[in-house]
Design goal:
The complex is a heterodimer of chains A (about 600) and B (about 400).
Chain A lengths: L22 H10 L4 H9 L1 H8 L1 H15 L4 H11 L16 H7 L5 H15 L4 H16 L4 H8 L2 H4 L5 H15 L4 H17 L2 H16 L4 H17 L2 H16 L4 H9 L1 H25 L4 H9 L1 H6 L6 H17 L4 H11 L2 H22 L4 H9 L1 H8 L2 H15 L4 H18 L1 H16 L4 H18 L1 H14 L6 H18 L1 H14 L6 H14 L5 H15 L5 H13 L4
Helix pairs in contact in A: 2-5, 3-4, 4-6, 5-7, 6-7, 7-9, 8-9, 8-11, 9-12, 12-13, 12-14, 13-14, 13-15, 14-15, 14-16, 14-17, 15-17, 16-17, 16-18, 17-18, 17-20, 18-21, 20-22, 21-22, 21-23, 22-24, 23-25, 23-26, 25-26, 26-27, 26-28, 27-28, 28-29, 28-30, 29-30, 30-31, 30-32, 31-32, 32-34, 33-34
Chain B lengths: L6 H20 L6 H15 L24 H16 L5 H4 L5 H9 L6 H17 L4 H19 L5 H13 L7 H11 L12 H14 L4 H10 L6 H16 L3 H19 L4 H8 L5 H9 L1 H18 L3 H17 L1 H63 L7
The chains are: A mainly alpha (about 600), B mainly alpha (about 400).
Pfam family, one (chain B): B56
GO molecular function (chain B): protein phosphatase activator activity
Organism (chain B): Odocoileus virginianus
Chain lengths: ~600, ~400
């Protein structure tokens, strides 16, 4: 190694200014031999510093060879290195020298550990953009070829990610070679490589000329889609979307649809699941006519698949499928071909299926219009609103805005209220929590009278729930309601009830009063805070329980900025000072903190 | 799937299968050549299926009950029948190999992912018999297991049948001829060692360690790469795994040759030194228990001049600082043992302990100085670059001005 491992290395002795240029490499070598992996890692993360200090030429001639030859290290260090190198083009002298970065990245791309390999491939892709076409053919393409012929599967897998970035700018002859290498990887012996190739098939297809797509990619696609391993077949389904986007309608029908039909009826549920999962993309890619003739029947089958996972995946796509149908005639299609199947799903045995359906079914209201919604969809909504599984009910409730647009919530409110109440009192606190989060939304849609009449007591009950997370969420809920309904409403309905809790025998409830005041004071404004809330807070400063007292201090700190200086000086300061002399350490601490934050000292 | 539909037909099938099992077990000469094709077809039709998705997506094999196969009453009998078929004295591999081919074996291996442990148990025995009787399929089976494991390690970290497959491999490795083929050594280093990184190691560690030790008993020159491999993958945050690794190291040390020991003693004891000072008492304890092993003690004694300097620092530190009194007691015993092995070296290390610590602190400071200088250098260079760019600019603009001021004078 030229020059760098000189006497300045290792001993750490300070060199004179003339030795400056030796420092960087010396430091690096030292650190990279250190026992502590953390130090090695830090050193690699500062590689750009070292490169800057060395300058572009020495980086090329000394640093990079050093890295290529001597790094056999922990995967963490290699990962950091792979990442650094992706941004090194500037540090080696610009695009003309980008190819110098290839040797270290090539060896990183063959490493066993997946994350290191992936990062190396990512960096290689980045750098490929900075190569001139000449450099690409002279350096990058040979690298890809070497990786693609590597004897351990790791290098061949990495190669798969590099074809699409070097193809576009290569010459005709080289393009032919690139295609050939890709072809052989698609029929590689090892399933890992075939999987990698299948997952990159779509991306590669996008950069090829249309003729190549038809003559080369489609056969590869068909083969991968009938691979013996279902893990390969399902990746072919993903590629299907990209390929279909490139072809004309006739070509799709002839070249792609047979394979897709096969996939939708594959004996492995995983492949069928993938078809269901990618359904919207497939629909958009194949166009309306093929959708009508082929995809809708396939979708019907997926909705009644024997595996619940597949049914649930299909159920998730119902709304998108319907939305993407051409507007003309879509109502009829949905009513005749989709709705009957959905009706079955409402009483499916599997709760995930029902839950998936519940999350999208409301969206159909806007597509089908008022009459159809009332006649056909409403019964389904109501049925799901009474489902035994809380998640199903929650999903319906969370999507009410779609229905509100079309038919107004009043229709549902009869059934809605019992459903809400039941969820609000569910034994599982996470279910209760979920319903609280929807409360502001519901309140907004149902209007203030409905809310006051039916839901107000619920919200107050949550404030004294056993579970702290519920009490906390309930407090924040109140704040959002005040933001929606205004301070006058707050003053008339909420605030009195909150303040009453200040006399509750349970100290946790007394504290909840304070937390509410914290949350509501800003929304309620200075007058309400000063006239109604402040006196209560100050009174609680004399509470028996220390927890209440120090929360008083915290509350005063929180609402202080909203009060005027008079109130602060005349009323708050004395109380805080008294708390500052409290016998309890925490009370003293928070009181003093409040005093200093409010600048009352 | 509704398990209580068609009860009558299911009962008939069950009875028939039972009959078949009985018939094959108790009669000789009934497995005729013409029957092979149908037998294999029947077995394939019953057991080869895409395994359904797990009912419990967060299935933790150590904690949760596995989802059992609903059609077990039939499938169990099919497996029984299959085994009797394979184990029958009338069974002829030369005929069967037409039907029990690579495709068959491939599908059989995929079934090892079944969540039902009873099924995996049967599969284990079945595969073992097939490996034993079909020599032509052996390389293929090993290759497919390779692929399953590699996918497990690098792609999914999920496969329910790892332990069973490793059990089979244990006996396969046991039967390897010497010298070991390159293919087998590659399997050890590139598949078995990386497998130690799997999250669910606890489920199959015993079988994995057995395979590793088998390899070492076959070829002791593999010791160094194996131990270096384990050290490379040493757990950093999972104490439960660390304890397993220490157990495996002890098993390896139990059979290690003294010459091999010398090759790895330094890196190994550096790691043991770290384990011994771990704040997790189970790790520390497990490492300290090495000193209860007679053979290991004899190896340490033979190489005390290399090992004691490595161990001394952390042992000394813990004897003063560890929170767990049991550990401290164990450490004292270990220190005593080491002192008895080489009293002089022990005393030397004790007296130089403080000086060592000082030296280390100084090195740390020097390191920081170095990096600071480097940062300054970087800033300086950046500034230089900026300045030179500025200079270029001003030179250029001056030249332009010059040119503007002095129109070209004509010659002469």
């Amino acid at each position: 190694m030229a020059g760098a491992a000189g006497p300045a290395a290792g001993s750490g002795a300070a060199g004179g200014d003339g030795d400056d240029s030796l420092y960087p490499i010396a430091v690096l070598i030292d650190e990279l031999r250190n026992e502590d992996v953390q130090l090695r890692l830090n050193s690699i993360k500062k590689l750009s510093t070292i490169a800057l200090a060395l300058g572009v030429e020495r980086t090329r001639t000394e640093l990079l060879p050093f890295l290529t030859d001597t790094i056999y290290d922990e995967d963490e260090v290699l990962l950091a290195l792979a990442e650094q190198l992706g941004n090194f083009t500037g540090l080696v002298g610009g695009p003309d020298f980008a190819h110098c970065l290839l040797p270290p990245l090539e060896s990183l791309a063959t490493v066993e550990e997946t994350v290191v390999r992936d990062k190396a491939v990512e960096s290689l892709r980045q750098i490929s953009q900075e190569h001139t076409p000449v450099a690409l053919e002279a350096h990058f393409v040979p690298l890809v070829k070497r990786l693609a012929s590597g004897d351990w599967f790791t290098s061949r897998t990495s190669a798969c990610g590099l074809f699409s970035v070097c193809y576009p700018r290569a010459s005709i002859a080289v393009k032919g070679e690139i295609k050939q290498y890709f072809r052989s990887l698609c029929s590689d012996d090892t399933p890992m490589v075939r999987r990698a190739a299948a997952s990159k098939l779509g991306e590669f297809a996008k950069v090829l000329e249309l003729d190549s797509v038809k003559s080369e990619i489609v056969p590869l696609f068909t083969n991968l889609a009938s691979d013996e391993q279902d893990s390969v077949r399902l990746l072919a389904v993903e590629a299907c979307v990209s390929i279909a986007q490139l072809l004309s309608q006739e070509d799709i029908e002839a070249l792609v649809m047979p394979t897709l039909r096969q996939a939708a009826e594959d004996k492995s549920w995983r492949v069928r699941y993938m078809v269901a999962d990618k359904f919207s993309e497939l629909q958009k890619a194949v166009g309306p006519k093929i959708t009508l003739n082929d995809l809708i029947p396939a979708f019907q089958n997926l909705l009644k698949d024997c595996e619940a996972e597949v049914r649930a995946a299909a159920a998730h796509k119902v709304k998108e499928l319907c939305e993407n149908l051409p507007i003309e005639g879509r109502e009829t299609i949905i009513m005749n071909q989709i709705l009957p199947y959905i009706k079955e799903l409402v009483s499916d045995t599997n709760q995930h299926v029902k839950s998936a359906l519940a999350s999208v079914i409301m969206g159909l209201a806007t597509i089908l219009g008022k009459e159809n919604t009332i006649e056909h969809l409403l019964p389904l909504f109501l049925a799901q609103l009474k489902d035994e599984c809380p998640e199903v009910r929650l999903n319906i409730i969370s999507n009410l805005d779609c229905v509100n647009e079309v038919i107004g919530i009043r229709q549902l409110s009869q059934s809605l209220l019992p459903a809400i109440v039941e969820l609000a009192e569910d034994a599982k606190w996470r279910v209760r929590l979920a319903i609280i989060e929807y409360m502001p939304l519901l309140a907004g849609q149902l209007g203030v009278e409905f809310f006051d009449e039916k839901l107000n007591s619920l919200c107050m009950a949550w404030l004294v729930d056993h579970v702290y997370a519920i009490r906390e969420a309930a407090t924040s809920n109140l704040m959002k309601l005040v933001q929606k309904f205004g301070t006058e409403w707050a003053q008339n309905t909420i605030v009195p009830k909150v303040l009453v809790m200040a006399n509750d025998p349970n100290y946790l409830h007394r504290m909840t009063t304070l937390f509410c005041i914290n949350a509501l004071s800003e929304a309620c404004g200075q007058e309400i805070t000063t006239k109604q809330m402040l006196p209560i807070v100050l009174k609680m400063a004399g509470d028996q329980v220390a927890n209440v007292r120090f929360n008083v201090a915290k509350s005063l700190q929180k609402i202080g900025p909203i009060l005027d200086t008079d109130a602060l000086q005349v009323e708050v300061k004395p109380v805080l000072q008294k708390l500052g002399q409290d016998e309890d350490m925490d009370v003293k601490y928070f009181a003093q903190e409040a005093i200093s934050v409010l600048a009352l000292a | 799937m509704d398990s209580v539909s068609d009860l009558k037909s299911k009962e008939i099938k069950r009875a028939t299968l039972n009959e078949l099992v009985e018939y094959v077990s108790t009669n000789r000469g009934v497995i005729v050549e013409s029957a092979y094709s149908d037998i294999v077809k029947m077995i394939s039709a019953n057991i080869f299926r895409t395994l359904p998705p797990s009912d419990n997506p967060d299935f933790d094999p150590e904690e949760d009950e596995p989802t059992l196969e609903a059609s077990w009453p039939h499938i169990q009998l099919v497996y029984e029948f299959f085994l009797r078929f394979l184990e029958s004295p009338d069974f002829q591999p030369s005929i069967a190999k037409r039907y029990i081919d690579q495709k068959f074996v491939q599908q059989l291996l995929e079934l090892f992912d079944s969540e039902d442990p009873r099924e995996r148990d049967f599969l284990k025995t079945v595969l073992h018999r097939i490996y034993g009787k079909f020599l032509g399929l052996r390389a293929f089976i090993r290759k497919q297991i390779n692929n399953i494991f590699l996918r497990f390690i690098y792609e999914t970290e999920h496969f329910n049948g790892v332990a069973e497959l490793l059990e089979i491999l244990g006996s396969i490795i046991n039967g390897f001829a010497l010298p070991l083929k390159a293919e087998h050594k590659q399997f050890l280093m590139k598949v078995l060692i990386p497998m130690h990184t799997a999250k669910g190691l606890a489920l199959f560690h015993a079988q994995l360690a057995y395979c590793v030790v088998q390899f070492l008993e076959k070829d002791t020159t593999l010791t160094e790469p194996v131990i270096r491999g384990l050290l490379k993958f040493w757990p950093k945050t999972c104490s439960q795994k660390e304890v397993m690794f220490l157990g495996e190291i002890e098993e390896i040390l139990d059979v290690i040759e003294p010459t091999q020991f010398k090759k790895i003693e330094e890196p190994l004891f550096k790691q043991i030194s770290k384990c011994v000072s771990s704040s997790h008492f189970q790790v520390a304890e497990r490492a300290l228990y090495f000193w209860n092993n007679e053979y290991i003690l004899s190896l340490i004694e033979e190489n005390i001049d290399k090992i004691l300097p490595i161990m001394f620092g952390s042992l000394y530190k813990i004897s003063k600082e560890h929170w767990n009194p049991t550990i401290v007691a164990l450490v004292y015993n270990v220190l005593k043992t080491l002192m008895e092995m080489n009293g002089k070296l022990f005393d030397d290390l004790t007296s130089s302990y403080k000086a060592e610590r000082q030296r280390e602190k100084k090195k740390e400071l020097e390191r920081e100085e170095l990096w600071k200088k480097l940062e300054e250098l970087k800033l300086k260079k950046a500034l230089e670059k900026q300045n030179s760019a500025y200079n270029m600019h001003s030179i250029l603009s001056n030249t332009n001005d010059e040119l503007k001021k002095k129109p070209a004078t004509s010659v002469g």
